[in-house]
Structures are given as structure tokens and as C-alpha cells.
Design goal:
- It is built from 5 helices and 8 strands, in the order E-E-E-H-E-H-E-E-E-E-H-H-H.
- The strands form 2 sheets. The protein has a 6-stranded antiparallel beta barrel with strand order 1-2-3-8-7-4.
- Helix 2 runs parallel beside helix 3, helix 3 runs antiparallel to helix 4 and helix 3 runs parallel beside helix 5.
- It has 2 domains: about 120 residues, Pnp Oxidase, Chain A (Roll); about 55 residues, Up-down Bundle (Methane Monooxygenase Hydroxylase, Chain G, domain 1), CATH 1.20.58.290.
- The protein is globular, with a radius of gyration of 16 Å.
- With about 190 residues, it is of the alpha+beta class.
- It binds flavin mononucleotide.
- Flavin mononucleotide (FMN) binds next to strand 2, strand 3, helix 1, helix 2 and helix 3.
Length: about 190
């Protein structure tokens, strides 16, 4: 039995990187919000590779990650195959601080599906003291706007990205600045 609290998954939405596997065995990773509400765990997932994979094999793993570059890369492109490790045939991220594997039950919608998550097993690899860094949080916000920008190409998302980039410049470390450089590169550098 997994105590989800032990993994730092509290009420609200925790941003994790969800790994899944395609029918032909290709691993995939994408940032997804893990919702915990009134004792229920679920994700709201738009049509994507992640959703296709869950529909064909209803297993997913929440990788708890603190690397801003990994969030940007998995949101806007693919993670290199060598960054996955396989446990019992299922892909996880080598750099995860911990992971939880879930059985999924998908309520398919038109654009958006709700995926119920039941924890099956998990592992805590590293516990770290993690003071709040506004630069890290700003990268996460910028990455969300970037995933909308690449689909909708609306200037308002670029303006938001610029705003969060100003916080990264002020408060972030090297890794956060690298993440923003990668983000701009992956959205075609429209500065
Ligand atoms: C921090 C963060 C949280 C996200 N949360 C969600 C989410 O809860 N549901 C969703 O459908 N997409 C979410 N996204 C967007 C997906 O990660 C993005 O669309 C990704 O490209 C999907 O990849 P895939 O096609 O490989 O599955 C989030 C992105 C970021 C950066």
C-alpha cells in the first residue's frame, strides 16, 4: 500500500512528468498535473501521445523531478531514449527523485479526458531540502504557456513567457536559465 503523502503529493495539483509506453514499446514523457482532490487521484489529459499510450496500455508513472530543463524538454520535444530506465518493462526517468506507477482508468472525452489513477508501486530515491525558488517556478509557468503557444500561436502566450523569463533572469540559477534558452529554441525563438 502506497502512502501518497510520503511522496509529497498533497491536496491540489502537483506538476510531475508522466511516463507512458506505446504499443510498440516506445517510452514517452510529458509534464502533467497530478490532481489530488477529496482522496481521489486523477489527471486531465488533452489529446496527445500520453493519452494515446494510456488508452492502449492503461499504466502511467508519475516521475517526481526537480530539473527545469527536463520539464521544458519533455513538454516541447522528446526525451532521449538513454534518459529512461525500465523497471518491470515500464519506462521511468533516470533523474527522478522518486516515482509512482499507477493503473489508469480513462474516461475519454472529445479534447480532454479524465484519467483516474490508482497507485500500484513506487520508490523514493532522494529526499532533498528544496527552498522555494521563484526562477524554477517561473520556468514551469513559462513551459505551460509555451505548450499553448506552439499549438495556438497567440502573442499573449509569448508575452507571458517574456514576463516569466524576467523572473528567471532575476531569481533563477544556471539550470533555470538553460531551461529558458531551450524553451525559446523549441518554440522557434520568437523574441
Ligand atoms: C508544467 C506543465 C504541466 C502540464 N500539465 C498538463 C496536463 O495536466 N494535461 C495535459 O493534457 N497537458 C499538460 N501539459 C502539456 C503537455 O505536457 C504537452 O502538451 C506535451 O507536449 C504532451 O506531450 P505528448 O504528446 O508527448 O504526450 C503540461 C505542461 C507543463 C509544462
Amino acid at each position: 500500500m502506497i502512502d501518497i503523502e510520503e511522496y509529497g503529493i498533497h491536496e491540489g495539483i502537483s506538476e510531475i512528468i508522466l511516463t507512458t509506453i506505446s504499443p510498440d514499446g516506445v517510452p514517452n514523457a510529458a509534464p502533467i498535473g497530478l490532481h489530488r482532490k477529496s482522496g481521489r487521484l486523477f489527471a486531465r489529459i488533452y489529446n496527445s501521445k500520453t493519452l494515446d499510450n494510456i488508452l492502449s496500455k492503461p499504466i502511467a508513472a508519475a516521475n517526481i523531478v526537480d530539473d527545469p530543463v527536463l520539464f521544458v524538454q519533455s513538454a516541447l520535444s522528446n526525451i532521449e531514449p538513454e534518459r529512461f530506465k525500465f523497471i518491470d518493462g515500464f519506462p521511468l526517468l533516470k533523474d527522478a527523485l522518486g516515482w509512482i506507477v499507477f493503473d489508469c482508468i480513462c474516461k475519454k472525452g472529445g479534447n480532454l479526458s479524465v484519467v483516474g489513477l490508482s497507485p500500484v508501486k513506487g520508490k523514493i530515491i532522494e529526499r532533498k531540502l528544496q527552498p522555494i525558488n521563484r526562477g524554477f517556478n517561473a520556468v514551469i509557468e513559462a513551459a505551460i504557456h509555451a505548450t499553448r503557444y506552439v499549438v495556438l500561436k497567440d502573442q499573449k502566450y509569448l508575452d507571458c513567457i517574456e514576463y516569466y523569463n524576467s523572473i528567471v533572469k532575476k531569481c533563477g540559477g544556471e539550470r533555470e536559465k538553460d531551461a529558458m534558452m531551450l524553451l525559446y529554441e523549441l518554440i522557434g525563438n520568437p523574441k
